[in-house]
Amino acid sequence: MRLRAEYRVESNLKFLGNLDMMNLMTRALRRAGIPFALSEGFNPHVKLSMGTVLPVGVWGKQEYFDLELIQDMQSDEFIAKMNGVLPLGMEIQRCIKLEDKQAALMKIINAASYTFILKNSDYDYAALPDTLMSQDKLLVKSRGKQKGIDKDLRPGIFEITVNFHEESVMISILVNVGEPVNVRYDELLDLLKDHGVQYEEVLDIFRSENFMRTGNIFCSPFEKVR
């Protein structure tokens, strides 16, 4: 049996690396008494597949993992047992049973939305979406494998929205992840800086959603594109 779970990682855990997150989740599975499956070989490990890596310093509202079990388990039982042992700041929100042929998360998640919380200053945030989306190119220095080369983010940015609050502004940017253009949150930070937003104005960063994108259709990993 395979499960897909949606979980939340709050800001107090945003400095955990990917390996730390894997170890945390594995320990929680053991403490909760979940009947997880193990791989074969000399060094067996839990058959746990995390979704796209949550960058260090970024927390997530809707993150995902797949888990293989050796026996059937009801979703509500899994959620209750896991939430009883997970640390403060992490919570399983939903869980579904997967079909055997369902593709792995790393293969289907190809878009994500990053939200930047900034101080509400005199900057004209309302004009920022039109300013950026009207450009033919949005060049920054790559922070990925090919560090330092010019990278055009424009083909990988689908939407920018701005929401105002009393003392803060939230800029949400929907982007491509993976091929052909993998847009990183730190490259988005550089892009905002290039257009007048100062680093010291950024109060927090989180990934609000992960998506399966087909054309202009964006679905959560719990849904199927029709």
Give a topology summary:
Layout: E1 2-9, H1 18-31, E2 48-50, E3 59-68, H2 75-83, E4 90-98, H3 105-108, E5 111-119, H4 128-133, E6 139-141, E7 150-152, E8 157-164, E9 168-176, H5 185-194, E10 202-214, E11 217-219
Parallel strand pairs: 3-10
Antiparallel strand pairs: 1-3, 1-4, 2-3, 5-9, 5-10, 6-7, 8-9, 10-11
Overview of the molecule:
By secondary structure, the chain is α+β, with helices and mostly antiparallel strands. The protein folds into 2 domains: 2-107, 2-Layer Sandwich (Alpha-Beta Plaits); 109-219, Alpha-Beta Plaits (2-Layer Sandwich), CATH 3.30.70.260. The protein is built from 5 helices and 11 strands, in the order βαββαβαβαββββαββ. The strands form 2 sheets. Strands 1, 2, 3, 4, 5, 8, 9, 10 and 11 form a 9-stranded mixed β-sheet that branches. Strands 6-7 form a two-stranded antiparallel sheet. The model has no long low-confidence stretch (mean pLDDT 92).
Keywords:
Alpha-Beta Plaits; 2 domains; two-stranded antiparallel ribbon
Structural shape: elongated
C-alpha-based Rg, rounded? 19 Å
Number of domains: 2
- What's the end-to-end separation, in Å? 24 Å
Number of separate strands:
11
Quick summary:
The protein is an alpha+beta fold and about 230 residues long.
